[in-house]
Structures are given as C-alpha cells and as structure tokens.
Design a protein that fits this description.
With 300 residues, chain A is an all-alpha fold. In chain A, 73% of the residues lie in helices and 1% in strands. In chain A, a hairpin with a 2-residue loop joins strand 1 and strand 2. The two termini of chain A are 15 Å apart.
C-alpha cells in the first residue's frame, strides 16, 4: 500500500518498536483490574499502523528533536486516545462492527460493558501518559489543552456525532468536510502540532506543521473512504463496503470515485506545499514529505 | 437530608450559582454540534448536588483561597467528569437505568449513540476546562495528572469495572471497599486534593485533606448504598432498591443495615479526625467539618 522510501522505512523500523514498547510498558504498569487492562491492551496492541504517533515523531524529527522517552510518551498517548475512539465507534449503538484489524472488536471479545469502560479508560489514560512525560510544565499544559480540544466536543467527538446523526441524510461537500475534519482531521493535526511544540518551535513553524497535519488528516479520511470501496477484508482487517450499506456519508458516495480521488490529490498537493514551506524556514521536510507516499497509489 | 449549619448554607448559597454559571458558560461557549451540546448540557444541568465542586471550593476556602474564576473552573471540571460517569453508567450495557435525578436518563432522551458521545465529550471537556483555568502551569500539570489518575483505569474506571464484573458474585469487605474507593472515592479524594493544590499548600496539608477526602468518599458511597434501600424514588430522583434487584455488591447487602451504618459512622469519624488535624496545622476546618453533616441522619 505504502510505497516507502528508504528514509521512511528506516524511520518506521526504528520508531515502531519504540512506540509499542512505550505502550506496553505503560499498560502493563497500570494497577488496573485484569479484565480492564486486558481489554485495553487487546485493542491497543491489535496491530494498528501507528500513523498518529509516527506523525508526532516525524514532525519532532523534522524540528530536530530526537525520540526520547518524553517524546515517545506524547506520541504513544495519541495511540491510546485513537484506540478508545475505535472501541466506542465499533459499539452496537454506534457503527456495530464485529471485526477490527482482522480480530473480533473489543465488545465482541470482552462484552459491551467492559468495552465501554476500556474506551473510557484509554481516553483518560491518554491524559495520564501526557502528564507523566518529563517536559517543562508549560509544554505539558499546551499539549493537554490542545489534545482536549482536538479530541473533545469541538473536535473528534463533534465529528463522530455529526457522522452518527447524519447517517442516511445526504450531506453537502462542506458539511462532509466538517465531519471529516472532526472525525480524523483534528487528532492528526494535533499530532503534528505536538511534534513541533515538543521541539519548542516558533508560532510560525507550529502553524505550518499544523496546516500540514490538517491536509494529511483530510487525505487520510478520504483515502479510508476509498479503501472501504476498493479494498478487501483481508487487506483492511475489517468489513468492507460497510459505509454504503450503512448509508454513511463518504467522499466516493458524494463525489463518485473519480471525484474522491481528485479531492485526495488536492489534499496531498496542499500538504506537499506545506512541506516546501517547512523546508523554506530551514527545517528538514524529508520525512513529512515521505509520509505522503502513504496515499500514493490513489493519488492521480 | 442534610442538616446544614448556617455556615454551610451560606457557603452553598454563594457557591452553587457560581458553579452552575461556570458550567453553563463553558458548555454554551463550545463550538459543538447542537445535539451533542444539548445532550451534554441536559445531564450536567439536571440538578446534581455539586458535591464534588463544593468539596474543591470548601477545601480551597479552608486553605484561604477564594473562589475566583480559575478555582471555579477546576471545581466545575469535576462535575463534567462526574456527569460523564453517570451517563455511561446508566447505559443499557451497564446499569440500564431509565431515570436519573427525576428525569429520563441521557440515552432514553437522546438515544444510545449520542449518550455515549456526550459522555466521551464531557470526559474530554473536563481536561479542557482544567487546562483553560489561568493557573501557574506547574499547578495545571499537577491537577491534570491527578485527575487522570483518579478518573482513569487505576481509579474510577477500575471501580466501575470491578462493580460491573462482580455483579452477582459476593465480594468480601476489603474487595467491596476497593470497588468503592475506585467508583466514588478516587474522584472525591481528588476534589479535596485539588482544593489544596489550588491554594499552593505544603505536602503535609495536601496529604491531610486528601485523607479527609478519601474518608468522605467512602462515607458518601456507603450512604448512597443505604439510601438505595431506605429512600423513595421521589427523594432520590432515581429508581430505588435497584442494587438488590441487580445483585450489586453493597454495604447493606454485605453487612446488613446495622453493619453498613457502623461502617458509615467509622468513615465519618475518621474524616472528623482529619478535620481536627487540619485545624491543628492552622487552617480553618469549619466548612470541611460541616460538610460531614451530609451523612448525619444515618450516622449513629
């Protein structure tokens, strides 16, 4: 799927084990009831691509900060939060999914009550892990504040609500963009923001990488919509063609496949423009540029 | 129910409108989808007793800090978090309650999907509101860290999990105490901790008021268990005798009514001992002492 360059492959090969180790160490260290910890760990360690933590670390690297313990904790906290959103999203009252990453969804495995609590636990744990990172308190406060905004009722939860409440109603393109900005965009934008804040960058740089993140997030969601139509269950580890069946609002549904790919291309192009600006202010844009290869096979 | 003294009545009369105003201002100011905001506001403004925010402010007052905007935001954030726990707790997959504070529960009113999201939104919003409070960043970081611990998989979510997964099994007293310490104790203990941290108190004072909070929290849960047996639906605004029907582990269920009242008395006595120590280090223990009158009619 991803046509990775050696720079990106090398980066991922170094970072993925560190991210997973940070997650495992954190989860195993929790004095939590066994069933709760098992349920949390089950979904966190189910083999996600770790795109959000990778974006934190790639942005930090572009800004010259290495992936030390604190940076890894901030990166990993985002995966905890992302995983909570998947668990709740899969619940019978929400998208009612049985399969995620090729395995039974959390509520299928642990029951609905424990799945709800595992989600609640992971969401709260994300803030715990950020606050544990040894950082200047001014940095921690910025990160907590931005994370709460990105994940909360003005961000991800807003997107989820609009998605759920508008299923079956046909949205306009601006409305669909609003859903997607919340559902996936806000958290991915935060990932890039966090990488720059971790590195103590200027407002200009923070804004630039956040803008890159916003375009990346939009591209990511359109790509996900496209894969739901073109992918197979084996590739994706989850049921496909669910969006159409569930009358979800998606890019291919609204614009057709060609229109969706056009929008994807536009988002990736806008992100590339940000990379060039990032390089113009003297930072290393290589990794952020490479990460856009993720979408390569669908970009025109 | 509460045999309030004039000091406590006066304090509550001044604080309750300020707490509600802080909550309303925050919720109304959110750029959130209407349905989500309505659902969040519905449960937050359903007429809770605001015990947790009051404890923050009472502890802060004992330590000489007045209820300024930042203190009110920290206090109110706890009500957001508490309300999320009620909404998720009432869900069909959890306690399956139809009535809360005399009104239909959140999912009865808004549907299960929106109720789950309203809970998620409120939990995240609690961290947003704490981080918005104009406080030294070292204070904010302490509060966020302690809140995440108290509310998360080692605290409230742990208690809820133990409660849900042990329903129908008879627990020992130490096991039941563990459930209650998580379910209600952790957040109430945090409330007192927050009041002292807001006031920049020494470790000794912070530990003292936290210990008071731990005893208060235990008393609060035992009292709640007792009311479920002795109260009426009109008094409590929710179904009564639900615990026994649902085979929940409770103090009266485990120890009988006399045994439960004995445990309540012991918890209140221990809290009173903390108040005397708080006074011995030179702080004003009046309000914290008065708040224990909440349990008076059941204390032997």
């Amino acid at each position: 799927m991803m046509q990775s360059s050696s720079v990106l492959i090398n980066f991922e090969q170094r970072m993925l084990p560190l991210i997973d180790e940070t997650l495992t160490t954190y989860l195993d260290g929790l004095a939590a009831p066994v069933q709760l910890r098992d349920a949390m760990k089950y979904s966190v360690m189910a083999g996600g691509k770790r795109i959000r933590p990778l974006l934190v670390l790639a942005t930090a690297a572009s800004c010259g900060r290495r992936a030390d313990k604190a940076a890894l904790q901030v990166a990993a906290s985002l995966e905890l939060l992302h995983t909570y959103s998947l668990i709740h999203d899969d619940l019978p009252a929400m998208d009612d999914d049985d399969l995620r990453r090729g395995k039974p969804t959390n509520h299928k495995k642990f029951g609905e009550a424990v799945a709800i609590l595992a989600g609640d636990g992971l969401l709260t744990a994300a803030f715990d892990l950020v606050s544990r990172a040894e950082l200047p308190t001014v940095t921690t406060t910025k990160l907590v504040s931005a994370l709460a905004r990105a994940a909360g009722p003005e961000g991800m939860v807003a997107g989820q609500t609009l998605d759920v409440t508008n299923t079956g109603k046909k949205l306009t393109l601006p409305q669909l963009q609003q859903v997607h900005r919340g559902k996936t965009g806000a958290l991915i934008k935060y990932a890039c923001y966090a990488g720059a804040v971790l590195s103590d960058q200027s407002r200009t740089v923070i804004d630039l990488v956040s803008e890159y993140g916003a375009h990346f997030g939009l591209a990511f969601q359109i790509y996900d919509d496209i894969l739901d139509v073109t992918g197979t269950q084996e590739q994706l580890g989850k049921a496909v063609n669910k969006d159409a069946t569930a009358q979800k609002n998606t890019y291919p549904g609204l614009l057709g496949m060609a229109g969706a790919k056009e929008q994807l291309t536009a988002a990736v192009t806008a992100a590339r423009r940000c990379v060039r600006q990032i390089e113009r202010v003297g930072l290393d844009g290589t990794l952020l540029g490479e990460m856009l290869r993720y979408f390569e096979d669908e970009v025109q």
